[in-house]
Amino acid sequence: MRLMNFHKVKMVLLLLLSTCWLPAYAQEAAEPRALVEAGVQEILSILDAHQAQAQSLETLYQQMSQGLEPYVDFRYISARVMGKYFRAATPEQRTAFAQVFQQSIVRTFTQGLIGFEYKTIKLLPALNQERRYPDQDMVDMQVETQSGQNYPLSFTLRKDKQGQWQIINLVVNGINLGLTFNSQFDQAMREQNRDFDAVIAGWNPAVNLDQAQD
């Protein structure tokens, strides 16, 4: 079991970036666990730079979005969020939602900077079990807060056609974010009488991160 100790980094930003923001050498055919560990290290320099330079949130939003693009399959995730409605959407609507989805995710989790602090992060041992899908893998982590509470993280990675791993889902303390967003998209479609344009224009996902910290 590998143990990494960091201080005064906000947990919610960690939950997103520890799974997604990886350094340049992540483009090599590295294993998912190695990418996650490298990503945690990368978070520190990004957050330190933000704090040291007193950057605006808009600047941080842009930096996060640009940094995430090579490592998070936003188009794949957004298609899963659209779920059963995906095939009925036009290519333009699919692209528009992928863009809006990426922007909303980046902003939602960046705003979580005011979240509570943590004490340690543990990259948990890999489970010796057969993968459900040969092109997917899961990596588990555990976050310990300053008060001694532990919160599990579990994220799913998918190997694309070029053989590179990308993030496609995250579960925070039992809250499956992919399923949460899918449920919200379905509700929005029903409320808007299946008007894709209206749903995309009004997309503003709600994630009760407090539940993940209770």
Automatic annotation (TrEMBL):
Residues of the signal peptide: 1-26
The entry's keywords: Signal
Pfam families, A to Z: MlaC
Coiled coil: none
Record keyword Signal present: yes
Protein name (Swiss-Prot/TrEMBL): Phospholipid transport system substrate-binding protein
Domain of life: Bacteria
Native source species: Allopseudospirillum japonicum
